[in-house]
Amino acid sequence: MTGGASAPSGGKAELAGLRPTLWQLFCFCLAGLGVIWLPLAVMQQMDALLAFVSGRELIADAALMLSLLIAVAFATALVGRIFAGLLGRLGVGDRRAWLLTWALLGLPLLFLCGGQFAAALKLWVQNVHGAKLIIGDAWRVGFLAICAAVLLLTGWTMGAARLIRALADAFLSLRVPALVLSALALGYTALHQPPLRADFLSAQPVSRPAAASAAPDIILITLDSLAADDAGLCGERVSFMPRLKEFARGATCFERYYSVSNVTSPTTGTMETATLPWTHWVSAYGGRIPAQIKQATLGHALQNAGYGTHSIAATLGASPLRSGAHSGYDSTDVADSTSLHATLYNSFSVFPDASSLPSFFFVASSVLASIDLRRYQDLNPFPADAVYAGVPALLANEPPARPSFLWLHVWPPHSPYLPPASTKYRLLPRGELDYRRDFPLLVNKLYDVKQQPLIDKYRLRYRETVMGADEKLGDLLDTLQAQGRLDRAMVVVTADHGESFERGMLGHGSGALHEPVIRIPLLIKMPGQKVARTIDTPVSQLDLPSTLLDVARARQLPQAEGKSLLPLLLGRPRAAEPVFVMDLEGQSRFRKIRDGRYVVIDGAHKLVYQLAKDHAELYDLTADPHERHDLAAAEPAVTARLRGLIRARIAEAEVRRERWFNASAPRP
Amino acid sequence: MTMNFQARRWLVLSACLLAILQPAPAFAYIDPSSGGLLFQILAPLFAAIVGGWVFLRRAIARLLHAIKERLTRKAGR
Question: Which chain A residues in 335-374 lie under 8 Å from chain B, judged by CB atoms?
Fold first, then answer.
């Protein structure tokens, strides 16, 4: 270590050798980020990520992350050095300038590493002792207050200079391993360069084969977490989407349309590949469309049929960039968000194949989420406007002879249930659940039945959010109508999955597959359609891509497991097919399917099946639409038939999984 | 007390910041956060290696140096 410019004396003696040179500051940051934070972050998520990415992919992602951190460390060090220089110019004494510079860099680094360490420790104790450590907000604040008090007391008794010295020494002692690891990471990343997002590099128009004559524009709009009953689009029931209901007067409404899963990524994976989640294995946490069908997706098929293909998603999680289908799109935008947390998350879309990167930031980004929580108390971080705003210009810029496929994924009515001012308080008066801080229960968790009255209020705010989403969508449809595009386009309005406010389940995670979570709206307006139609045959999200390709007169995907709904749309009969829904959380594409929750819907019957327990529940949805009476014991023949059907399909999926993934799989 | 007013103010400020910026539940879809077998094995191993490096690095270096010196002396005789 080099000494200061002047001989150390007094307080400065405690910082002797710690003159904040650019190199010292760089090593300090790199050690903290590269040797403490990143390994902890990777280890914490490793087991779950290895269910969907191979060991080699995880190493590549970690190496890329470390390479990026080298740049971050350098930039931070530069800021520190400039800060120290500025203090010098302002006449601040050497000792104070050094102290403040180290503190400027050291405290955030300590906070980041300490937070990651605390999260890892908590998770480790939970794992090893099987204890579920849940601390309420009050306890969390208390715990952090104790940490702050300890820091304060340590500083008070040791002296700030000695404390900073100890911190800097600890991090700087790790500079050799940090530099070695960084060199290895840079080398690995240089040898295995991760592809950058194509439209990030250039926006050159791509040549296309000519589309079939009269191939219509196709506009697919998915509203995140919109349950069929809360939308109320079909028939004469109460609707919270009046403008869409008006639109439905010239469209076909599917009364019993089911999503294939209860979270977004598996459902978008299905809409891209026309296969069920047990085939494509796209998960919420980084699963990508398998190499075998990566070039045979909805986007690719439409491109091959002469379409210009575009996606605008509210979040990276719902974008083709996340599922790995992005090469089938001419443009893949992720809408701007007011959320710092989402902005960080979305920034990783620059490296679309490095799907683990966002997961590394879970603990760190929770701090950003807490800032978001305080900055935007009643503002939805992902407003629908952010997605819809670019649509007219995008369509106007398309070559006139080329039909367009546009997939818009908007966030509302997904939680946080923060409706726009125009619909807020229409159902639940002011004074309750006004701001984000007023929502005491976490979404996507189970709740106690005693909390149902509170959950009912959640639902009212949710419905106000649905109403807000309807207003924005109505505005978009009006704009398209004014442009003369609406009548001749095929317009599909649907959801990825539903949302639950009953049966002890709030939201859509936690394995729940009851009707509010999986039955979603589907509204299809064919080109020129003026008459309303309602179809009550149970159909699946799996059928949607085949339907779009059918209408576009494109070639069907070779792996397609669904069937086109076009016969039904044209008023012709279509043989009824069993509908499958599944929650594969905890299962790995690299290991035998041992568990998971599955649903098969066959006519009026719905069987809910848990594989590991070989447990089945049977419901008659006509007589018991709220699934209150389990008929498994009363109707053993139906139960056995549907259970046999699910088990047979799982066995088929298992054979395919073994064939597709085991060649490159890490051993369990 | 060794702290001056500026340093105290800085520490109070950082303590307040720590309390204000408490981690909050983030949005879904990025947190597998399951831990698991590999994590249970690797995490303590990692903590031991990093802790050993930071706190015992000099002691280990001294020990190795002493062993080396003793061996060199023996060889010199």
Answer: 339, 341-342, 345, 358-359, 361-363, 365-371, 373-374
**Whether residue A256 is found in the same domain as residue A300:** yes
Of B3, B16, B35, the CB nearest to A159: B3
Per residue in A137-159, pLDDT tens? 666 667 777 777 887 787 777 77
Same-domain check for residues A519 and A666: no
Question: Do A167 and A256 fall within a single domain?
Answer: no
Q: Do A265 and B29 touch (CB under 8 A)?
A: yes
3-state helix, strand, coil in chain A (%, to 5): 50, 10, 40
Domain of A612, CATH number, reads: 3.30.1120.10
Q: What is the pTM of this model?
A: 0.85
- Of B4, B13, B31, which to mutate for an interface test with A (greatest number of A Cβ within 10 Å)? B31
Q: Is the residue at A478 inside a domain?
A: yes
DSSP state at residue B43: H
A218 shares a domain with A151: no
- The residue behind tokens 């990167």 is A357
By Cβ distance, the residue of B14, B17, B35 closest to A127 is B35
Could you read off the pLDDT of A39-75 as tens digits, one per residue?
999 999 888 888 888 899 999 999 999 999 999 999 9
CA-nearest residue of chain B to A148? B15
Q: Judge whether A668 and A591 are in contact, CB under 8 Å.
A: yes
DSSP H helical ranges for A487-634: 515-518, 544-551, 566-569
Phi, psi angle pair for A607, to nearest 5° = -110, 130
ipTM score of complex: 0.75
Which of chain B's residues have a Cβ under 8 Å away from the Cβ of A128?
40
Per-residue pLDDT of A533-560, as tens digits, reads: 999 999 999 999 999 999 999 999 999 9
B-side interface with A, Cβ within 8 Å? 1-3, 6-8, 10-12, 14-40, 42-44, 46, 50, 53-54, 57
Residues A294 and A429 grouped into a single domain: yes
pLDDT tens column, A2-50: 333 344 444 556 666 678 899 999 999 999 999 999 999 999 988 888 8
Q: Is A591 on the interface with B (CB under 8 A)?
A: no
Does one domain contain both A563 and A599?
Answer: no
Full domain range(s) for residue A164: 11-191
Measured N-to-C along each axis, helices B5-20 and A160-172 cross at an angle, to the nearest 10 degrees, of: 60
Dist CA A467 CA A170 (whole Å): 55
Give the residues across from A607 on adjacent strands: A600, A618
Q: What is the pLDDT of residues A414-469, one digit of tens each?
A: 988 999 999 999 999 999 999 887 887 777 888 898 999 999 999 999 999 999 99
Q: How far is CA A348 from the centre of its chain?
A: 12
* CA A552/CA A302 separation, integer angstroms: 7
CA distances from A660 to A585, A589, A590, A656 (A): 19, 9, 9, 6
**Chain A residues in contact with B6 (beta carbon < 8 A):** 96
Q: Please, which residues have CB within 8 angstroms of residue A95's CB and are 6 or more apart in sequence?
A: A10, A11, A12, A15, A161
Contact B3 A124 (CB under 8 A): no
Residue B25's contacts (CB-CB under 8 Å, 6 or more residues apart) are A366, A369, A442
**Contact status, residue A288 vs residue A297, Cβ threshold 8 Å:** no
Q: Smallest Cα–Cα separation from A329: which of A159, A174, A203?
A: A203
